Each structure stands twice: as structure tokens, then as C-alpha cells.
């Protein structure tokens, strides 16, 4: 029987990694990735890694406030972590603090009522929590040699685990040795304000066999880019061979969203998109003569900022497209609010946004029970540590419509693992092996990319 899992040291690595190309959307332009990697070392010599990427416009946190939370209330919880079984570890992880009135606090920060830099020890810190939770869970899975299927079973998630998982993922989950999520395939994300670069990205993604795409919108040139993208994949969308989602990152007011989206909806009925297709035809079903099927968008993500949820029912009624919730979905209270409003079409669950693995699985369970679809999102610039955790999420949550992430060194100039986790042809998920996140971390690279230097916290 393994010795109890007790943390003797926690190290925080605030990384700065150059990207291969700038990533742009309505809220930010990024040339560098700035994840925080959390390493916990157990008294018996085992280790675990977590990762998070705090964003002020997502959870109200920035790097400084997240690091403070990790060295404050979250450190207290790590010091108290003492687990003699996986069940005991999971109980401790579910009890990790979120901060005082987390959902209310996140909303206040996003609305500008407080500054992320002024967050007190009692403020909400779901992103910081996620980094610590993922590190402790990784260490626990390795220490007790347990799989994510057993985690899902302990949580009582009836939709999860090997019995409910699809394809090879579920069959291999119980062994803990290897998993490859058979569903879904990873999406391509078109995140550039430059039309030429957007089309080059799209061409390369299609050559790589991708069929699901997300286009960032919310700036002055978005309509031109949308038209150009639809000229390239409109026919494939009409024939069910591709999907397109739009993501505004909360850039619009209700009036702007209504004007923009209603106009875009009318592209099809006016025949504009149809006439732009290579052969001037619409769908194979025969209904393409008016282009009515061409602009069948899979969904519009976060059209309004967090705090504007009360305006979503009217907007959804006008545009008819499913709404995908990102910044509006951080906690279970958020999810319940969206369900009460009748707009819970798709939940974009991101591990580092939603408080970690267990909280994200709770959200997925809530979505499944409430009839909402699930998208596994990612953070721009995440390393293969967080990507590996995302793959484990997919292993026990088969009811996922779209997945994002696993870009690895396609986006990062340097990854912190010995094998960068990257999706394959047609978005095929990479395999992860062993227990935990399956990421063989390169300690030397991790230390080299840390800027400022790592923060070591000795716990005894």
C-alpha cells in the first residue's frame, strides 16, 4: 500500500515563451505565452504538474494576483494536503478554496469594478485554483497509480468512465497506461486580423485534414474575413463536411451584436454566400438555390461581455444560431443561470478557467443533464502539461462536440515536455501514456523559460 501523499515542496514557474506567430482576437494580441506551471513534490519523491493561464477578461485574474493566491490561501490548502488514498485526495481537491464569493468577484473584476492587481486574499481565483488542483491531481494519480476513469467513478459521473466513453479511449482508460480520445477531433482556430494570413492559415488547416473551424470576430475587419472564409468552405459547410463557429470574445454591445449577426444571417437568404462559392451552387440537397443552407453556423461564442447574459434570450431568438458560452461560464452558478435563461446551448469548458479538472467535470455533468452540448476549450499558449490534462478530460467525457488545444510547438517556439502533444492529421488527438497527464516534463527547459525565476515554497 502506498505511503500517504504529503506535499513537501511546491514550485511556481511563471513562464514566458515566444509564439511562432501572433494570435489576435477582439480582447488581446499575443506574441508570447505566459502560463504558470505548478510543480508539487511529495514526501516520497513523487511529483505532479499543473498549469494555468490567468486572464483578466476571463476570470478577473492576472499573473500577479494568481501567484499571490497560490502563495496565500491555496498554499495553506497544499500544506494541509494529506491523503492515504485516491478518495482522500479527491475529497481534499474538491475542498480547495475558490476565494470569497468567487462568481460575484469574477463578475466585478470583469466589469471593471475592481482591478485584478488589487485582488485580496479573499477574492475569487478560479484560474489559480486550477493550476494547483491539476498539479495535486497529477501527483495523486501517479502516486496511487489510478486512472481518470476511477476519478469519474468516485465523482458519480454516469456519463463518464470506460463504460460510457467512445472508441478506444474508454477501453484503455481503466488500465491507466494509454489513452487516445476517439472523439472529437481537434478544431482549427483562425485568429488573425489580417485577411491574407487568415486565408493562409485556413489553407494549411484544410491541407491538414481539419473539418471544424473557429473564426475570431469582433473587430472592424471581421465581416470581410467571414465572407472570405465562407468562399473557401461554404460548400463544405452546406454539405455537412465542415463546421464553422464564430468567437467574438464579448466584444459587442447588444445592439452591435444584433446588427452584425442579423446581417450575417442574411448573407444566405440574399444569396451572397451562395454566389461566392466556386461553382455558384448551394447545398446538394437542392435547397441551395437561395443559399438558405449555406450559412449554417455551428454557433456564435460569447457575443456579449460577461454580465450581459440577460440580453442573450432576445439575441438568440433573432439570430437562431446556438450560443456558445465562454467568459460567461466559469462556475456552476454561471451554468445554472444560463440554463434558467434558456440559452444554455453549448458550454465552452476550459480547465484553467473553470477551477481545474474536477470542477470542469462537474460542469460537463451539469451540461449533459441539462441538454447543453460541450466544447473543450484551451488557452492561447498552453504547454503540453495543460494539453495532456485536456486529453484526460476527453478520455472520460465522451459527450464533447468540439475540442481545441494540442497545438504544442505548432504555436510555441519551445514546449516544456520532452514530447510536445500535437493533434495529428484531421485533428486526431495524440496519445498520452502512463498515469496522470502523461507529460514527461523537461525540468531544464522549464527553469530556462521561467521569467521571473521560479518561486520555491518549502513545506517541511
Quick overview:
This protein is of the alpha/beta class and 460 residues long. It contains 17 helices and 17 strands.
Number of domains: 2
* Biggest sheet statistics: 8 strands, parallel
**CATH architecture annotation of the largest domain:** Alpha-Beta Barrel
Helix content: 25-40%
Task: Kindly provide the radius of gyration, computed on alpha-carbon positions and rounded to a whole number of angstroms.
Answer: 22 Å
Beta-strand content estimate:
15-25%
CATH topology of the largest domain: TIM Barrel
Q: If strands are numbered along the chain, what order do they take across the biggest sheet?
A: 8-9-10-11-12-13-14-15
Distance between the termini: 23 Å
Query: What is the residue-mean pLDDT, rounded to a whole number?
Result: 86
Shape: globular
Low-confidence stretches: 102-107, 109-122, 161-181, 275-294
What is the CATH top level name of the largest domain? Alpha Beta
SS-derived structural category: alpha/beta
Q: Assembly state here? A: single chain
Helix run count: 17
Please give the number of β-strands. 17
Look at the structure and name the CATH superfamily of the largest domain.
Enolase-like C-terminal domain
Describe, in plain words, how this protein is organized in 3D.
It is a single chain. By secondary structure, this protein is of the alpha/beta class. The chain folds into 2 domains: 5-155 and 445-458, Enolase-like, N-terminal domain (Enolase-like, domain 1), CATH 3.30.390.10; 188-435, TIM Barrel (Alpha-Beta Barrel), CATH 3.20.20.120. Helix content is 38%, strand content 16%. The longest helix has 19 residues, at 126-144.
Amino acid at each position: 500500500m502506498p505511503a500517504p501523499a504529503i506535499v513537501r515542496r511546491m514550485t511556481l514557474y511563471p513562464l514566458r515563451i515566444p509564439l511562432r506567430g501572433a494570435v489576435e482576437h477582439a480582447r488581446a494580441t499575443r506574441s508570447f505565452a505566459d502560463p504558470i506551471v505548478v510543480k508539487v513534490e511529495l514526501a516520497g519523491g513523487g511529483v505532479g504538474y499543473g498549469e494555468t493561464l490567468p486572464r483578466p477578461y476571463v476570470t478577473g485574474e492576472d499573473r500577479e494576483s494568481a501567484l499571490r493566491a497560490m502563495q496565500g490561501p491555496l498554499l495553506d490548502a497544499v500544506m494541509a494536503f494529506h491523503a492515504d488514498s485516491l478518495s482522500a485526495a479527491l475529497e481534499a481537491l474538491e475542498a480547495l478554496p475558490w476565494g470569497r464569493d468567487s462568481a460575484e468577484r469574477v463578475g466585478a473584476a470583469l466589469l471593471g469594478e475592481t482591478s485584478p492587481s488589487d485582488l485580496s486574499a479573499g477574492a475569487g481565483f478560479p484560474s489559480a485554483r486550477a493550476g494547483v488542483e491539476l498539479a495535486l491531481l497529477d501527483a495523486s494519480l501517479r502516486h496511487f497509480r489510478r486512472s481518470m476513469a476511477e476519478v469519474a467513478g468516485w465523482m458519480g459521473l454516469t456519463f463518464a468512465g470506460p463504460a460510457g466513453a467512445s472508441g478506444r479511449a474508454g477501453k484503455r482508460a481503466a488500465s491507466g497506461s494509454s489513452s487516445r480520445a476517439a472523439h472529437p477531433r481537434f478544431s482549427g482556430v483562425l485568429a488573425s486580423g489580417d485577411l491574407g494570413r487568415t486565408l493562409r492559415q485556413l489553407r494549411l488547416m484544410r491541407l491538414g485534414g481539419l473539418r471544424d473551424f473557429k473564426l475570431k470576430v469582433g473587430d472592424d475587419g471581421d465581416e470581410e474575413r467571414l465572407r472570405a472564409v465562407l468562399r473557401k468552405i461554404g460548400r463544405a459547410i452546406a454539405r455537412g463536411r465542415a463546421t464553422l463557429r464564430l468567437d467574438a470574445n464579448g466584444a459587442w454591445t447588444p445592439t452591435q451584436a444584433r446588427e452584425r449577426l442579423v446581417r450575417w444571417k442574411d448573407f444566405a437568404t440574399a444569396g451572397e454566400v451562395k454566389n461566392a462559392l466556386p461553382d455558384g451552387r448551394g447545398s446538394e440537397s437542392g435547397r441551395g438555390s437561395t443559399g438558405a443552407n449555406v450559412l449554417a453556423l455551428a454557433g456564435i461564442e460569447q457575443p456579449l461581455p460577461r454580465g450581459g447574459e440577460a440580453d442573450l434570450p432576445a439575441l438568440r431568438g433573432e439570430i437562431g444560431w446556438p450560443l456558445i458560452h465562454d467568459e460567461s461560464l466559469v462556475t456552476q452558478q454561471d451554468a445554472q443561470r444560463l440554463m434558467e435563461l434558456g440559452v444554455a446551448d453549448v458550454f465552452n469548458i476550459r480547465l484553467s478557467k473553470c477551477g481545474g479538472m474536477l470542477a470542469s467535470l462537474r460542469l460537463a455533468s451539469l451540461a449533459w443533464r441539462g441538454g447543453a452540448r460541450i466544447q473543450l476549450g484551451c488557452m492561447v499558449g498552453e504547454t503540453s502539461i495543460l494539453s495532456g490534462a485536456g486529453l484526460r478530460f476527453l478520455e472520460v467525457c465522451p459527450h464533447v462536440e468540439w475540442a481545441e488545444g494540442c497545438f504544442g510547438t505548432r504555436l510555441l517556439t519551445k514546449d516544456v515536455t520532452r514530447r510536445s502533444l500535437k493533434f495529428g492529421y484531421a485533428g486526431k488527438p495524440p496519445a498520452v501514456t502512463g498515469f496522470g497527464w502523461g507529460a514527461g516534463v523537461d525540468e531544464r527547459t522549464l527553469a530556462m523559460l521561467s521569467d521571473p525565476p521560479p518561486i520555491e515554497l518549502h513545506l517541511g
